[in-house]
Design brief:
There is one protein chain. By secondary structure, the protein is an alpha/beta fold. It has 3 domains: 82 residues, Orthogonal Bundle (Arc Repressor Mutant, subunit A); 99 residues, Periplasmic binding protein-like II (D-Maltodextrin-Binding Protein, domain 2, 3-Layer(aba) Sandwich), CATH 3.40.190; 100 residues, D-Maltodextrin-Binding Protein, domain 2. The protein is 41% helix and 23% strand. It contains 10 helices and 11 strands. The strands form 2 sheets. Strands 3, 4, 5, 6, 7, 8, 9, 10 and 11 form a 9-stranded mixed sheet that branches. Strands 1-2 form a two-stranded antiparallel ribbon. Helix 1 packs across helix 2, helix 1 crosses helix 4 and helix 5 packs across helix 10. The longest helix has 25 residues. Keywords: DNA-binding, Transcription, Transcription regulation. InterPro entries: HTH-type_LysR_regulators (IPR050950), LysR_HTH_N (IPR000847), LysR_subst-bd (IPR005119), WH-like_DNA-bd_sf (IPR036388), WH_DNA-bd_sf (IPR036390). One of its GO terms (molecular function) is DNA binding.
């Protein structure tokens, strides 16, 4: 299928009007209508809901095609850009997925050093928790990802990174425990806890801490602790998290308190198996290793 036709379809989906879409695409309205009709015939599905007066909506099939087409066209643009910029100097774009941890700060230093050496190299950072990053990796939305252990990463090529995060409680300064130097594990059941969404993390925490994270004091789940800053600042909630969260997103109204049982998690760099890393990715891997040695 010609990617140009997909761009035509997406423009119609965005504008909801054939005439307006034709103007944006600099083609005639009859030409655009014929291309859309042929696309529907090729797929054997009606993509546009033409029953609404003055506006073209999307059928269920059209919604699916629009969503998938955006990813497909982005991948194609990335491929074309990488091929065009495959000369001797490293250029193009590298897409990196990151958990919010101390690794984020290191990656920023890596990017700065790489762009000093290769001014044409661009980057795109995607911040999320490990499960979302793996989905983005599988869908080819990112080139590689740095995940927080434990991770199920058998289907990826991977490299262990010697950067570790200390687990503890993140609370607001209004919280009665905010002045504590350490939190006893037995005290956790007394707090209004918000815990990580990832079940594999919770299983690992339960095994290490010797507690069950399923009691009535569990008030909610979160993928990124930065999403609940306001709740924590009230002083009524606490969240189990890593010390790197406040290093990446400093908040003067929040404090990190380590647990009385030392619990640390490492990081792992992953990328798709059977996918030959580009020159830009190799440069990123090498510079990352160099910066980590300086820590």
């Amino acid at each position: 299928m010609d990617t140009r036709i997909l761009k035509y379809f997406l423009t119609v989906a965005q504008t909801g009007n054939i005439t307006e879409a034709a103007k944006k695409l600099h083609i005639t309205q009859p030409t655009l209508s014929r291309q859309l009709q042929k696309l529907e015939e090729d797929l054997g599905q009606i993509l546009l809901d033409r029953t609404q007066k003055g506006h073209l909506g999307l059928t269920n099939a059209g919604i699916i095609l629009a969503r998938k087409s955006e990813n497909l066209l982005q991948i194609w643009d990335d491929i074309a850009d990488e091929v065009k910029n495959s000369g001797s100097d490293i250029s193009g774009k590298i897409k990196i997925g990151l958990v919010e941890s101390h690794c984020s700060i290191i990656v920023e230093r890596v990017i700065q050093a790489l762009q000093d050496l290769h001014p044409k190299l661009q980057f795109e950072l995607y911040s999320a928790y490990s499960d979302d990053l793996k989905v983005a990796l599988d869908m080819m939305q990112i080139d590689c990802a740095i995940l927080l252990e434990p991770v199920e990463s058998i289907k990826y090529s991977q490299k262990q990174l010697p950067i570790y995060e200390q687990w503890g409680l993140i609370v607001g300064k209004k919280h009665p425990w905010s002045k504590n130097k350490m939190i006893n594990i037995s005290e956790l059941k007394e707090a209004n806890l918000i815990i990580p969404k990832r079940s594999i993390i919770n299983q690992d925490l339960e095994a290490t801490l010797g507690i069950k994270l399923n009691s009535e004091n569990i008030k909610g789940y979160v993928n990124l602790s930065s999403n609940i800053s306001w709740l924590l600042e009230t002083g009524e909630y606490a969240t189990l998290g890593i010390d790197g969260v406040l290093a990446v997103r400093p908040n003067p109204n929040l404090v990190f308190i380590p647990l009385n049982i030392e619990k640390k998690s490492g990081h792992v760099l992953v990328w798709r198996k059977n996918n030959q890393p580009s020159a830009a990715m190799h440069a990123f891997f090498d510079m990352l290793e160099e910066k980590i040695k300086l820590i």
